[in-house]
Amino acid sequence: MEEHAVIVIFDYGSTDLGALFEVETRLEEVIAAADVGDYDGNEIAVDGSDGTLFMYGPDADALFAAVRETLLKSECLSNVRISLQYGPVDDDDVRRTEFALKE
After folding, report:
1. What is the pTM of this model?
2. What is the mean pLDDT of residues 18-35?
């Protein structure tokens, strides 16, 4: 099975990660309900200024479709940018699509 990725880069602005953990729980739920892959975790700056979320599955478009509304409704995330990767993340030759989801 080919591994695609949805990488979400965002501004956060707090060292209180409670709201982010709620978003992560919701992402896990919608991904599981749609059966489109897995939520793999986050990287957050020590000062809470920004972060990245990682999701993987066999179809980046289907995975993004499953999480799109959750990301749009997540008030704690701003300046959200999406990277859809159509193949292994460590392969520099895979097709990537990058775009802003919300300011």
Report:
1. 0.94
2. 98
